[in-house]
Amino acid sequence: MAATVLPVATRALVEACGRLGLDPDRLLARAGIERARLEDPDSRLEAGQADAVWREALLASGDPALALRAAEQTPFGAFRVLDYLGASGATVGEGLRRVAAYFPLVDPRAALAVEEEAGGAVSLVFRAVGGGALPPQAQEYTLAILASRVRQVTRAPRPELGFRFTFSRPAHAAEHARVLGVEPAYGAPVAALVLSRATWDAPTSGGDPRLLAALDEHARALLGRASGGDGAARTRAAIWAELTGREPSLAAVARRLGTSPRTLQRRLEEEGTRFAAEVDRVRRERAESLLTAPDVAIAEVSWLVGFAEQSAFTRAFRRWTGTSPSAWRREHAGSVPGRATRPR
């Protein structure tokens, strides 16, 4: 089967091209994509269609540095979940690890991997899945976006970043230095964003508080209930912190609470509940909150509540609510004021 991608990256690119003076509707028409598909978070585009938007944009602009300029014109928040994940880590490195884990959901043809370097630096390596070379514009755009997000969320006054590209030094290399803020290395074995250890470990500022407001509100509610000393509430807050992109384990939650798994189980039993029941409760509450955000895909909701497969999430959601995530979303569309708009 042909690879498919979430529409969020194509939507961000088309919006950036519009800011650069290109005609977004013409780009989409020539690529064979209806605009409504970009606005539907649960649609999937054929990878070839997403690539066609790039080709049409490069032809229409005649600008070899289009990827860099498009990255400049892509505001924080345009990538929604990806931007939220980068901003919500306690440190820059924690956020980037979350982004790397999430990335295949957006485009399964490429992957981000965290690799330690000699001297303490850390690289975020950008590779094609299955080998082969990534197109130069994919390398430029992706690494420029990631670097801009690091600069947006870090509290470090001067993030120390480096860039490696697999292609030869291009004629528009001066634009690389201008946009990226440093001269990249060309002809490298792999494309990568390189961060000094100090930048990797730097605390984040939290980013834009409007990103995934539904998820943030849920977190605040859990933490507020946890402050009262209720053991189950404190457990739910810890589960929430462990949930993104993975199923929280009893051991990890107990460690976060500074206790042992056996002691945590005993305390929950004394309050008439079980760890599995609390995980279910947090997952359901978080899923319902996220489904009120109209531009977060159900596949992304599934990942954010810790399911490896969307089918498993759908089964669990039916068990919780008696209906499917898509039906629940349609029924509750617009029911939560202030959560339905995407930040610009």
Architecture overview:
With 344 residues, this protein is an alpha+beta fold. It has three domains: 4-62, no CATH class; 81-200; 213-331, Orthogonal Bundle (Arc Repressor Mutant, subunit A), CATH 1.10.10.60. Helix content is 55%, strand content 8%. It has 18 helices and six strands. The protein has helices at 8-19, 24-31, 35-39, 47-61, 66-72, 81-88, 92-106, 136-153, 173-180, 197-200, 213-226, 231-243, 250-257, 261-270, 275-291, 298-304, 310-321, 325-331; strands at 4-5, 45-46, 110-116, 122-128, 161-164, 191-195. The longest helix has 18 residues, at 136-153. Mean pLDDT is 88; it is low at 336-344.
DSSP, total strands? 6
- Class from helix and strand fractions: alpha+beta
Helix count from the secondary structure assignment: 18
Question: Distance N terminus to C terminus?
Answer: 35 Å
- Seen as an oligomer or otherwise, the chain set is single chain
Which H/E pattern describes the elements?
EHHHEHHHHEEHEHEHHHHHHHHH
Report the sheet-strand fraction.
5-15%
C-alpha-based Rg, rounded: 21 Å
What is the residue-averaged pLDDT?
88
